[in-house]
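Page 47, continued from p. 46.
Same chain as before, 130 aa.
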Amino acid sequence: MVIEIQNSITKAPDIRWTFFQDPVILEDALGRKIPVPSEYDFSLLDAIIKCKFQEGPGATHVAINNYEIMDARNRVHILSTNSQLKPGSTLIMAILLGMPPSVVLTNERCPSPECRSGNIKKACGGGRLW
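Result:
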């Protein structure tokens, strides 16, 4: 029995399949919390999101990259391709809704999605009226 205990103590853990840092927790647009190894980069995180949204709600928006990933503590900080994942951080995914991706806002059209009028008058004191 002593030899069995000694053998189990001297065996080193198999570290090929373990990660050394806390995972990043991603809350997707449907509220699912997905642990992502912090050793991954943004492109792998993007691939995980695309895999999770292959079909179902939000699949069309994710397919055309109509979503953003932001830091849960500082939602102004939006992740991009050169962003690093910080161990133990929490990220939130948001699908961008509103205007279709083909609509480009310019000063020649009303910015209201329902209006989109091209009839413009300059307002007294600056600005425009549609």
